[in-house]
Amino acid sequence: MSMKKRNAHRQQELWIAADQIASAPGHPFYKRLNGLLADAGFDAFVESACYRFYAENKGRGSIPPGVYFRMLLIGYFEGIDSERGIAWRCADSLGLREFLGYSLKESTPDHSSLSRIRCRLDLETHHEVFIRVLKIVTANGLLKGKTIGVDATTLEANAALRSIIRRDTGESYDEFLTGLAKASGIETPTREDLVRIDKKRKNKSSNNDWQNPHAPDAKITKMKDGRTHLAHKAEHAVDLETGAITGVTLQPADRGDTTSMFETLAEATKNLEEVRDDPETVDDLAEEIVQEFVGDKGYHSNDTTRDLAEAGIRGYISEPDRGRRNWKGKAAERNAVYANRRRIRGKRGKALLRKRGELLERPFAHCYETGGMRRTHLRGHPNILKRLLVHVAGFNLSLVMRKLFSVGKPRVLQDRRPAVLCVCRSIFAAAGDLYRLWTEILIRIDRKEPLALRIRTA
After folding, report:
1. Which residues constitute the domain of residue 172?
2. Which residues contact 37 (CB under 8 A, 6 or more apart)?
């Protein structure tokens, strides 16, 4: 057989029959995900929810809303942070084309189309999609709503620290330092002079004094790795019995945990009540939702423990060592703190705090590390929260996929392939050893020899 050489400058055919176009076999994970969404009536739901944002019988046909939300889900499952990257990946992959319902003759939506649809659909519509996925999770027995844990993480903003300006005068950082240098007697300050002056200042990165003109929602904060960036704060409310995320809020990065927790807890309670009001999922939730709250040391304070007790919620919050306390005139706070201390030292309290370390930290790793949203590419909390709601909905769908098909992400199939091959090789090797052993037994029986065999074990 002669070797065929690749011709990079071969002239393309002008016409090609439709039956000659290569068809995609489809990814097994996305095929089953499409089946799950179809059984839940996902496309009909999002089309009815988005109907009011489109004109009837006017203009060219739009991109189906189901395609838009599927592309955002692809961002989670494939670990792609930007809309431009999502659009490129969908155009490049035959399996994702099949998941979206596009053939090779059709062009998939580009990143500008995704941005346009995101701006057209309001935040409430994205929240409705999140609730719809939460109902799918509940229908599959993965949501109870009794014990809720809350934790937060920082997301790097799409803004640079060097672009911040003074809130009062509008000066840039270099202009402000130059003014300080001239006020101290240095007429023509050098870069070294500015660095020296900046090093001696206190509270030089205060959010009360500085802001980014392009991203006013971003706040100066210290990230998990110790670096200082402009960032946002994403806070999750997680069902500690199943690991499903029941609510997510986006808040300023400089807001304390004790201040933001009640907003997130209220969001989770509202979502659970909305799911409970659905007659198809009412039997799957606990009789009384949000009976217990679990948090780390950042959520412990006199006010939070007292407010939880007044709301009838049992708190299991890790308590930092604050030394001897003065409870004069604070009887309610004292009783709430002591009750929380008793609970976290009990058997159930210790079990819940261990579960918090597992089920509260895991969604952050899936959504922001492997999910690719540790750095946001959008500006403005409404825009970021739109993407975040669908991103977290993808995490909840992965819980359902893991329960139904034992695979929560498409990349898990690739990770499991070497392990499956290794198991198959072991089975075949064991079968070969048994065949050789049986053959030797038969030969010795024919020869009337003693059956003293040395069996090789793996």
Report:
1. 165-211
2. 43, 66, 70
- Neighbour-count burial of 63, counting CB atoms closer than 10 A to its CB (0-12 exposed, 13-18 middle, 19+ buried): middle
Strands 228-239 and 147-156: antiparallel
pLDDT at 385: 96
394 part of a folded domain: no
In a domain, 229, yes or no: yes
* 371 and 439, same domain (yes or no): no
Rounded CA gap, 286 and 277, in Å? 12
Low-confidence ranges of the chain (pLDDT < 70): 1-24, 59-60, 281-284, 286, 413-433, 435, 445-458
C-alpha to C-alpha distance for 328 and 340, rounded to whole angstroms:
19
Same structural domain, 297 and 373: yes
Cβ-in-10-Å burial (0-12, 13-18, 19+) of 172 comes to: middle
Tell me which amino acid residue 65 is: P
182 in the same domain as 75: no
Q: How far apart are CA 256 and CA 233, in angstroms?
A: 10
Number of independent structural domains in the chain? 4
Q: Are the CB atoms for 154 and 228 separated by under 8 Å? A: no
Question: Taking a C-beta distance cutoff of 8 angstroms, is the pair 261, 405 a contact?
Answer: no
The verdict on residue 53 lying in a domain is: yes
442 domain-assigned? yes
Angstrom distance (rounded) from CA 241 to CA 96:
33
Residue with tokens 């070497």: 418
pLDDT digits (tens, 9 = 90+) for 7-58: 555 556 656 666 666 666 778 899 999 999 999 999 999 999 999 988 877 7
pLDDT of residue 455: 46
CA atoms within a 13 Å half-sphere pointing along the CA-CB vector of 243: 17
Cα dihedral 356, 232, 247, 390 sign: negative
- Token digits for 283? 């039997």
- The sign of the dihedral angle between the CA atoms of 409, 415, 416, 417 is positive
Instruction: Quote the crossing angle between the two packed helices 191-200 and 173-183, to the nearest 10°.
Output: 90
